[in-house]
Amino acid sequence: MILGPDFSILHVNRATQQATGLSEQELKGRPCYEIFHDASRPPQGCPLAEVIASGRGGTAELEVEILKGAYRVACAPALDENGNIQNIIHLASDITERKKLAQALRASEEKFRTLADFTYGWETWLDAQQQPVYVSPACERISGYRPQEFIADAGLMERIVHPDDKEIWEQHLLRHRQGDGPDNLDEIIFRIVRRDGETRWIEHVCRAVHGADGTYLGRRASNRDITKSKQAEEALHEKEENYKSLYEMIRLIADNIPDLVWAKDMEGRYLFTNQAIVEKLLIARDTEEPIGKTDLYFAGRQRAAHPENPDWHTFGELCVNTDGIIHASQRAQRFEESGNVKGEFLFLDVYKAPFWDEQGNMIGTVGIGRDVTHEKVLERESKQAEEALRIAEANYRSIFENATVGIFQSTPQGRFLSVNPVMARIFGYDT
Q: Which of 173-182, 242-251, 392-401 is predicted with the least confidence, judged by mean pLDDT?
């Protein structure tokens, strides 16, 4: 279009007529702002107004209501011989689609930046020259340093790596330099030292970034603060080591006492055995073999190995029966259990008790048995000797009382201690 200094339309081309739907005659003489902006005066930022005021050309991007779009407007003054504006050449380019694309691009960028900025992890993007392009705000929460500090100082990340983990980081960077193919994924766990001196554990995962045409664009990385889980892992490991040490101590104590020690579940399967029960009763390979097995398993194995001798192993059933008593009574009790093991008699003085878990549930039985076979043999021999002595005394008394001759017993001084009836009558006594 060609416009006058008073904003009036002097001439329009065919494109303007098509865009407005008006002929040149209908447009001529009318103010341009009335036609294109449906206004009574020029819009704010009107380049024509600036040209008229300054005498110099100008451009602007304006929304044109009548044409329902965005246009890039350029105005250039045509001056007369005295330097006064004679008219203005007005060029308008339809940039509606370009504006829409630009707005869509900005919206997309804003969406993805918002998504990246609000991720809980510390996200980074290094370009092909390993210079930071983007660092998410989460880096400050984890490291104490702001995103701008990492972007301005490419060596900051390497400097905050914990001294003891420098080699891990350097090997990681070396793998980057050796190849960044499409599937080049790398993961490491290392420590950093925060701005305040606190140490944090970081799980770092990164991979190469490539454009649609395969162009290498750098690396994308995610840093996750795993300090709490690492501390929990270390605490668990320490607790496991303590439990292991405690178990080893209990194992040593149990294996060094001569008494039989064990624990069973509610089905009678062994949970724990010491060396003594393995050697003296179960005849197992070691203290681990009985775990998960019952007394009858080992009794059956011994009997199967010596079918010719029914008395080779008779221990087993009685043990099971006393386990049932503990299950029913749910209190500690003492038992005497005996039988043959490897053809030899074995007598045990046994204490058994319920095995309770931390929630107060009965999960089995625990027991300790002392080998009192020798004591029982001595006790039996002592009773036999006492019985033999009683019988001998009875025989002696019978002979003494029923003898047909006088019998007496006296001290060396001749004092009578005892006399039989015949001897009493000889001396004139009844008894």
A: 173-182
Asked whether the predicted pLDDT for residue 181 surpasses 80, the reply is no
Residue finishing a domain among 100, 131, 148: 100
Burial class (CB in 10 A: 0-12, 13-18, 19+), 413: exposed
Tokens of 32: 């341009």
pLDDT of 211 > 90? The answer is no
Single out the residue of 310, 274, 311 nearest to residue 291, CA to CA.
274
Q: Which residue type does 184 have?
A: N
Share of the chain above pLDDT 90, in %: 54
Give residue 45's domain range.
Answer: 2-100
**Do 28 and 57 lie in a common domain?**
yes
CB atoms within 10 A of CB 123: 20
- Write the burial class of residue 285 (CB in 10 Å: 0-12 exposed, 13-18 middle, 19+ buried): exposed
Mean pLDDT of the chain: 89
Cβ partners under 8 Å of residue 22, min gap 6? 35
Please give the pLDDT value at position 373.
Answer: 93
CATH code of 341's domain: 3.30.450.20
Q: How many CA atoms lie within 13 A of 54 on its CB side?
A: 12
253-265 confidence digits (pLDDT tens): 999 999 999 999 9
Q: Rounded to the nearest 5 degrees, what angle is found at the Cα of 9, between the Cα atoms of 8 and 14?
A: 170
Let me know whether 221 and 173 are in one domain.
yes
Residues 350 and 268 in one domain: yes
Query: How many residues are recorded in the chain?
Result: 431
Residue closest to 10 by CA, chosen among 48, 62, 56, 41: 48
For residue 172, count other CB atoms closer than 10 A to its CB. 17
